[in-house]
Amino acid sequence: MTFRLGVDVGGTFTDILLINEETGESFREKTSSTPEDQSIGVLRGIEAVCRTAGVGTDEVRAVLHGTTVATNAILEQKGARVGLVTTRGFRQILQIARSFVPGGLAGWIIWPKPEPLAALEDTVEVTERVGSDGEVVTELDEDDARAQLTRLRDQGIEALSISFINAYANDRHEVRVAELAAEILGDIPISRSSAVLPELREYERTLTTVANAYVQGQVARYVRNLEGQLHGSGLDADLSILRSDGGLVSAAVAADSPVSLLLSGPAGGVTGAAWVAEQAGFEDILTFDMGGTSTDVALVQGLTPRVGRETNVGDLTVRATSLDVRTVGAGGGSIAHVPPLTQALRVGPQSAGAVPGPASYGHGGTEPTVTDADVVLGYLPQELAGGEISLDVEAAHAAVKAIGDATGLPSVQAAAEGIYDIVNENIYGALKLVSTQQGFDPRDFALMAFGGAGPLHANALGVLTGAWPVIIPPSPGVLAAYGDATTSMRDEAVQTLIRRFGELTDEELRSLLHGLAEQARTSLLEAGLSEEELTTSFAVDLRYHGQGFEIPVTIDAADLDGPALDTLRAAFDAEHDRLFNFLLSNEHELVTARATVSGPRPEMAATVLDEGGPDPSAAARRTHQLWVEGQEVEATIYDRAKLLAGNVVTGPAVIAEMDSTTLVLPGHAATVHPSGSLLIRPTDSAAKD
């Protein structure tokens, strides 16, 4: 037998899922993350899950990993000192940036503009110029380039980015400067814009290239370290890393292009959620993944997550294909506080993280968190992560009491309920970003909650959004690891080619896209996949001639054999009308073409529970007191492992399992689907499938 491992590292917990490739049987493990070196927690979790399954580490064939190393390097500003080489006259490209200021009316006064990832003193210009058509306007002055690279070396840069104007149309000068840099600077990471993002718009291309160089060293070291530790522990397995768009790449490719990993962690959860939704019979879902530090939300339509062309991490926005995931600082470890100036209760974005963690963890934390509020309200059992963490109820009460004292609330329960309600509103605001602000009514979707803390807040979010049923997948705390383990290898090739439709033929479009597909296949074939296993999808960024922005439009491979331009024209008009409610008579224009090639999706055996009828009493553990809507109510705690298909758990109730806890509110009921998911609805519709 052979096994594959899904590994997801979060800010608080590291989740491990071991899957038997022949039977589909899975084993899970949850352990505390080790921020000082993520590989320590990963290896500890892998060894623990192999012991649980009774298998040797040598039987693991593949390790599939969602990582936050690149994300954390940017958020914590712990990347490399980056030098930037650009075309003469464009030295201040990162400082000029785009004229956009976030925030309200006075944002331009109070917004602290973030410092560029490459400082101005580490930015140099060289004499060269390429036109937008790819023709060389001014030849590269190699003596000038050598002098500027020597200057950067003497300043002590740790990584180099090269971004010349219009290099997407002709990369010859960038390639030559990279060769010179290898001679002068030695063995440091080098990122070329023509390789990282061969698209127009010099600012976005430069920023993305600099971001790639900024995190490249850390990601490469982490990947090497993890591979070394895996092999040292007896795992002779291939390591693959999850990209922001939900596909897998080999460890070597990931180390070369880490900017594509910035949403690696959240992407695993969305991918896993789509798989679970398919098993439960739902195609359109909103997802929210609530962990210890943050909550990630996304929209899945027709079992396909929406994909965006930008990746946002903190104040940084780079051009990299990623699932359209939005993040809010609302997790189980989010700290509740009362600012002296306003005396209004706030929750997050600061988090207690894994160390010291919430007060109830007993690791030295004293500040009140969402987890502590859940403990006070009775929503959490006294043990988490299968007994690895025992909760200190008295410490939770003491921490939350400080909030009650600061706000004048009548009881510690009232303070805890305030924390619970506010964090739910924060998540609701994030869900609106991917639904109503994108033209989607959340009531047309089911709501899937996962992550260690998600199921505790899922029922309340269903009430706020009107999205029913609320779906709690099997093993919600390790769903991101499940997504890592059940996705496929993927790579893409991109080319900017600005052409009005009147200047382009169907045959030229076919030739362009098929050529890009050949480029994208290369890394997958080198990873050992065969040509027969690969599937290809195409997309183009279109606009009306004269517009300053594009809209991505997909096109089926079969449509390329017909009137492809007419098909794209109609698809673009439909999407433009949906987004903006108007169309223009201007000619359509192609800006960027993209081909994505994917390997086969692993075959996984679906879970099928035994039928048990509506009575869930065989899974009942004991009764328990909860605080709900200002009063104490008696609830039943159920063991999820003992629930059978068709069981209906009527609220108020708590459903406990190894990696998460589900709260069913009064007036609602959770029906157990044969696939193992819990479907929560208001009681007047709980019996409907």
CATH fold node name of one domain: Nucleotidyltransferase, domain 5
> Can you give the helix content as a percent range?
25-40%
Poorly predicted ranges: none
* Mean pLDDT over the residues: 88
CATH class bucket of one domain: Alpha Beta
CATH H-level homologous superfamily name of one domain = ATPase, nucleotide binding domain
Query: What's the story with the biggest beta sheet?
Result: 9 strands, mixed
Radius of gyration: 26 Å
CATH arch. level architecture of one domain: 2-Layer Sandwich
Gap from first CA to last CA: 37 Å
How many separate helices? 17
Class inferred from helices and paired strands:
alpha+beta
Describe the global form: globular
Count of DSSP E strands? 37
- Please state roughly what percent of the residues sit in beta strands, choosing from under 5%, 5-15%, 15-25%, 25-35%, 35-45% or over 45%: 25-35%
InterPro entries: ACX-like_C, ATPase_NBD, Hydant_A_N, Hydantoinase_A, Oxoprolinase-like
Pfam family, one: Hydant_A_C
Protein name: N-methylhydantoinase A
GO molecular function, one term: 5-oxoprolinase (ATP-hydrolyzing) activity
